[in-house]
Amino acid sequence: MLFTPARHEPLAERLFSEAAAREAIARIAARAERELDAADGRWPLDRADALNADARPESGLYCGAAGVAWALDELADEGYVAPGVVDRELVEALEARTLADPLDPDLGVDGVWDGVAGVLAVAEHRWPEAARRRDAARHKLKEGLAHSSTVDQVTAAFARRPWSESSHCQPGEGCSSPA
User: Fold this and answer.
1) 3-state class of 37 per DSSP?
2) Are the C-beta atoms of 50 and 64 separated by less than 8 Å?
3) Is the pLDDT at 19 greater than 90, yes or no?
4) What is the DSSP letter of 128?
5) What is the residue-averaged pLDDT of the chain?
6) Residue 13 contacts by C-beta under 8 Å, 6 or more apart in sequence?
């Protein structure tokens, strides 16, 4: 089975409702805004998402605070959460937390956006900086992922800037894709 039915709302015999979809998004966003642990800089792990009894909050892009931060930032642009829920200090602290946590499940994973590179992608999305783009590939090497293909992928992905059409990029900020 591709999904666990108990973890999803059942299909209903009703037409799509934009209002209902917006209401669900607002409800999810409000919960995320409410549950941010400001002292920790992450969100508590939903027990339904725990893969084992030792699971704890994570910092990464795919399964952790960096991904929630990116989503909330986008939802703030659409008016679902207050602007500033996700700020630069929170996102940059995730980089330090990921590097300092030897048990972080994202460290040592051979993926383009895993580990610190994923956290840096969130920061880069909102606050573009050339130094951050260089750091992303360097962190992959530090994580023991000396595979040149992974480093090349990270470097190329930051150069392409797949998020460049975002409302965060203003003319003159270097947000356009290379020709």
Assistant:
1) strand
2) no
3) yes
4) -
5) 76
6) none
> pLDDT, tens digit, for every residue of 140-151?
666 555 455 555
Report helix, strand or coil for 42: strand
Please write the tens of the pLDDT for every residue from 152-176: 666 666 665 554 444 444 444 443 3
Handedness of CA 40, 106, 95, 121 (dihedral sign): negative
Neighbours of 89 (CB within 10 A): 8
Q: Using CA atoms, how far apart are residues 19 and 123, in angstroms rounded to an integer?
A: 31
The C-alpha atoms of residue 8 and residue 147 are separated, in whole angstroms, by 38
Q: Report yes or no on whether pTM surpasses 0.70.
A: yes
At 116, is the pLDDT very low, low, confident or very high (cuts 50, 70, 90)?
confident
Identify whether the C-beta of residue 60 lies closer than 8 Å to the C-beta of residue 117.
no
The answer to whether residues 65 and 43 touch, using CB atoms and an 8 Å cutoff, is yes
- Cβ(143)–Cβ(151) under 8 Å? no
Question: What is the rounded CA–CA span in Å between residue 113 and residue 111?
Answer: 6
133/165 Cα distance (integer angstroms): 18
Please list the residues that pair with 143 across neighbouring strands: none
Query: What is the spatial distance between Cα 55 and Cα 46, in angstroms, rounded to a whole number?
Result: 10
